[in-house]
Prior knowledge:
The protein is an alpha/beta fold and about 450 residues long.
Amino acid sequence: MSNYVYNTPQMLLATQVAYLDIPEGMSVGKYVEYLMTLKDSKNLKGKLKKQCEVLNDFMSIVEKSNYQDWKSWKVVNRCDKNNQSGMYGCLIDTGYGDAIIGFRGSESVSGSQVIKDWVVSDAGMYMSVLTQQQKDASDYVRNIWNKYGKKYSTYSITGHSLGGNLAEHATITAPKEMVDHIDHTVSFDGPGYSQLYLKAHKKEIERAGGKVTHLEWSFVGGMLSQPSNIEDKVIQAQNPDMEGSVLGIQKAELWRHATSSVVLGDNDVVVTKERTAFAQTTHNITVTLESGSALWLLSHIPFVRNVIFANTISSYIRQLRDKVERTIADVRETFKNMTNALYQKYFAPRVSGDFMINVSAVPALCSEFVAVQDKFNRITENVENIRRTLRYNSISGAYLKTKLFCMCNRMNREARKIKKYADVLGEIRQIYVNADNEVSDLYI
């Protein structure tokens, strides 16, 4: 990584900054000093205790590299969606005219966070082209580019574990203009992607995949498949100091996923090695699972299935749903304004002199509703045709087939609502016409 703006230790430190809850505008050094005053306290618990654990990993990397300029790094922007999808990202100004975007990995601070990170996002990768956290990561990088643009000479993107997966995805889907300003992206032991994802993002991967390096040192980093055009390495890591085994697997190998386990060689360069037998077995199992051989097994785990389905449906139909809801909101607002205008003009004041009720705009509005309803019906028919052609040959295919079915039902419901609005407007128009005729008779 010597040809890049940031070396391996600097990118590793940036992943740890993403795990720290540093307020916008605060330097990394100042926040670390704050945690240093608390880390030996015996009363720490919850998030603060977790922050001090992250601090230990952070300082371990510092000691290995003897890099000290991190103290002046400053978090200038952050996106905290821990209470929503679980995604967390931050923009780090390193003071060199360049910047690093860091993404946080899976957390286990609370039960809800475990579900968001480990079930919805991590397990959701097996059966989707896009998880909600991946979508949020793409949106965040796009917002960073729109806000800061060429203020920084280059952007580097990184993350550990789930954060590494998000960093890769954010790079692959970054705005075209921004890709040219991305110096390098490093996924530290992040899991890969489903075949459905790789096919869906093929063109984007061809465009930006060459910017990405994936460094794997535990079974987590070997899960699923990586894009074929990235630099993919298995590197040496230290096992944590623990004894015993689980189902014949050494505990040390199960728990060496932390960034502090990475071994740095001469000049802070990582040391490559072969994938362990356990990591290779995990890789084979996850690829087989995604391909569909374990579809029956997953379909019989209601909790996992239901949580993933409930939390990822918006990733597929969010744009269409938002468009539908905006349309309905516009219809309601138009209806409200029209009714209020008619009331103010004809019913609020006392009737005196000549007046005329103009209802010519109502049929036009009704026609617009009918046109929208027809569009909904055509889209629903196209989606239904796609659903019929999909086969249950993989978890991803079965999952999408279910989502498309739900989407058709939603579209049908919205179409019925629009028809109802059109019918009500027609009835109201007729009431106004009748009232107009009755009032006109009084003056004729």
